[in-house]
Specification:
This protein is mostly beta strands. The chain is built from four helices and 59 strands. Strands 27-28-31-34-37-41-44-47-51-54-56 form an eleven-stranded parallel β-sheet. It has a ten-stranded parallel β-sheet with strand order 29-32-35-38-42-45-48-52-55-57, with no helix packed on it. Strands 30, 33, 36, 39, 40, 43, 46, 49, 50 and 53 form a ten-stranded mixed β-sheet that branches. It is globular and about 55 Å long.
Length: 654
């Protein structure tokens, strides 16, 4: 039965079957599904997966959502009825939704847990879910204009407090995202003659969503023009965007922050290209970029170009020059220690005990420092946002090294912005029955992962950037990390160090990878404007980097405008560079150049690398110092050094 009772939804669950003991755990076996009210007052199915108490003092309940908005769920309560004899109440103290699953952290009293186990609950159970309301009005007047293999969208802005931007959905799946000041979007790589329905949802800085806009439908029409061209399709889009203006470069410690004024285009700007001293270093989707890992006291000159969906590139902006300057020390605003308490104030003398409490205590521009030791978390989730130039930073205390071990994952949900994880050891629990499919799931904007040691205990992907249907990661920076032991070789080509799934403008540079089960970096199926430079990749089970596309729910997904350059890629189980153009067709604008490739089992590249421009590669032994010990510094006289420009592993302190 369903009822709407003010701020909550009440659902009567299927009849509970039994409670069984599994080791030290209790598992509540429920019937397969139950109905739940959606926001449109229609009924859908809510599959109940499991109730697993990892001990008799706390546990986790996982439900698959159907018809509920994950971002608006703020709590839940499960009540188990055992006929007339007793009622066992389990109240969630924290709820979070990700990828269609509702995870509840549940403190269960020992006596109640034992009573439930003894009684063998058989009667009906109820789940009450509380959700928030939003102060944003829905976007309005959404229109869809057909183009060749593309559809252009325009809408009227939402109003309300804390508007941060808009999510764009195609046939119920999120396909794009814009900032608060952008009320247009071009959906490309569509199939001509196929009808598509779109709607738009506004979101706040905290991730709360507005009601849906109206739905607008259009059918792309074939022409002789390039995909994404304007209507009518009488001639190809050959007009380049205007050049970016007002480029500024602000120095920091080993970093320079760039910002510029947006370009304009007759169809729409797809992204930007950032050049440092004449070399492409990043392809962000927005109008800012933080260039890190630089040498203090060295002068760097930057210029930026704009690119549209047809591949037209603007002239470079006027240059901007700056020199990074060393800071005296890390300024810690809050602290955590393995000997602390989450009831403390988080000061140096009274630190928190958990990494989650420390992360939750921070606001934009603040840094949380973890003292040396190991912090075990069920899930480490970003619940607050930083801002451009003022990120929330979680890092090790100066001159110390902290390790975070999660039972499930590190999770940055869609709508999160400007979070930095720096100088940490990140991993998940080995052989954990509750381990997540992906160790780091990042659906945020402008997150940074810098100077970390990231390992997956040979279980699954170490990092996933965006995911089709769940969110797009924008302008992620992955720099100066060590990725190793990511994925299980038994899973074939499924597990990777970095799975760039649905991403715009990611920068993956100055990292060292070894023992990735399949690919060190998979650009699939919808990775656009990714910059992969100055990495060392060794001993991948399949290949170092793959360019790929696929078809999802009848919609083509291709990886476009990705650059792979100045990398050393060796000893792959198949290829150094690989590609796969699935049913969605061939990607556009991808290039690989100036890489040093060696001893990849089936060849340094897969044949002709159809659809990818491959130039200036070198095929030679890089002469690692000691690859068996994972010391990937280059010996004096390495033939790769002149190709890739500098010794990445030496910079990382190998």
């Amino acid at each position: 039965m369903l009822s709407d009772r003010g701020s909550g939804l009440l659902m009567t669950a299927a009849r509970a079957r039994r409670i069984v003991a599994v080791g030290s755990s209790l598992v509540l076996i429920l019937a397969a599904s139950a109905a739940v009210a959606s926001t449109a007052s229609t009924s859908r199915k809510l599959d109940i997966h499991r109730f697993a108490a990892t001990s008799e003092s706390k546990g986790t309940i996982t439900f698959r959502l159907g018809g509920l908005d994950p971002k608006r769920v703020v709590g839940a309560e499960l009540r188990l009825s055992s006929g007339k004899r007793r009622v066992v109440g389990v109240r969630a103290v924290r709820a979070g939704a990700r990828r269609g699953l509702l995870h509840l952290r549940v403190p269960t009293r020992t006596t109640r847990t034992r009573a439930a186990r003894a009684s063998g609950v058989r009667a009906a159970s109820t789940l009450t879910v509380r959700s928030t309301t939003t102060q944003l009005t829905p976007p309005s007047n959404l229109t869809a204009t057909a183009r060749d293999a593309a559809i252009g969208l325009n809408w009227s802005a939402s109003s309300g407090k804390h508007l941060a931007g808009y999510n764009v959905y195609r046939d119920g799946q999120q396909v794009g995202k814009t900032g608060a000041g952008t009320t247009s979007y071009v959906a490309t790589a569509l199939t001509n003659g196929t009808s598509y329905g779109f709607y738009v949802v506004a979101y706040t800085s905290s991730g709360t969503l507005s009601p849906l806009s109206n739905t607008a439908t259009a059918t792309p029409q074939a022409s002789t023009t390039s995909p994404g061209s304007t209507t009518p399709p009488a001639s190809a889009d050959s007009t380049a965007p205007t050049s970016p203006t007002s480029l500024t470069a602000t120095p920091g410690d080993a970093s320079i922050s760039l910002s510029w004024a947006a370009s304009s285009d007759n169809v729409g700007v797809a992204g930007y290209q950032v050049y440092r001293n004449g070399t492409l270093v990043a392809s962000p989707s927005g109008t800012s970029y933080a260039d890190t890992g630089l040498t203090n006291g060295t002068s760097y000159t930057y210029a930026v170009a704009a690119v549209d969906a047809a591949g037209n590139r603007s002239a470079l902006s006027s240059p901007a020059t700056a020199s990074p300057t060393a800071s005296q020390s890390v300024a810690c605003d809050r602290y955590a220690s393995t000997s602390g308490s989450d009831g403390n104030a988080g000061t140096a003398s009274a630190p928190f005990a958990s990494a989650q409490k420390l992360l939750d205590s921070l606001s934009a521009g603040q840094t949380g420092c973890l003292r040396a030791g190991t912090y075990t978390e069920y899930e480490l989730r970003a619940n607050h946002n930083g801002s451009v130039g003022s990120p929330i930073t979680l890092t090790s205390y100066p001159s110390e090294r902290a390790k975070i071990v999660t039972q499930t994952d590190f999770y940055l949900p869609s709508g999160t912005t400007d979070i930095t994880f720096k100088n940490l050891d990140l991993t998940n629990a080995a052989n954990s029955s509750s381990v997540a499919a992906v160790m780091i799931q990042d659906f945020s904007d402008r997150s940074s992962w810098i100077g970390n040691d990231i390992s997956g205990n040979a279980q699954s992907h170490c990092m996933e950037l965006g995911s089709v249907g769940y969110g797009v990661a924008h302008d992620t920076v992955v720099r100066a990390n060590r990725f190793h032991d990511c994925g299980n070789p038994a899973h074939g080509n499924q597990d990777h160090a970095i799975y760039v799934s649905q991403s715009r403008g990611a920068t993956i540079t100055d990292n060292v990878f070894w023992k990735s089960a399949a690919y060190a970096i998979q650009l699939y199926p919808d990775a656009d404007f990714t910059t992969v430079t100055h990495n060392v990749i060794d001993s991948s089970g399949y290949a170092g980097v793959i360019f790929a596309s696929d078809q999802y729910n009848g919609t083509g997904k291709t990886s476009d405008y990705n650059t792979v350059a100045y990398n050393v890629i060796t000893n792959g189980g198949r290829y150094g560079l690989d590609y796969y153009w699935g049913p969605a067709g061939q990607g556009t604008g991808n290039s690989a150049h100036d890489n040093c490739l060696y001893n990849n089992a089936m060849g340094d590249t897969q044949g002709s690398m159809t659809g990818i421009t491959v130039t200036n590669d070198t095929h030679a032994d890089p002469l690692y110092v000691d690859p068996a010990a994972h010391d990937y510094r280059l010996q004096s006289g390495s033939p790769c050094l002149a190709v890739v420009g500098y010794d990445t592993a030496a910079r990382l302190g190998f």
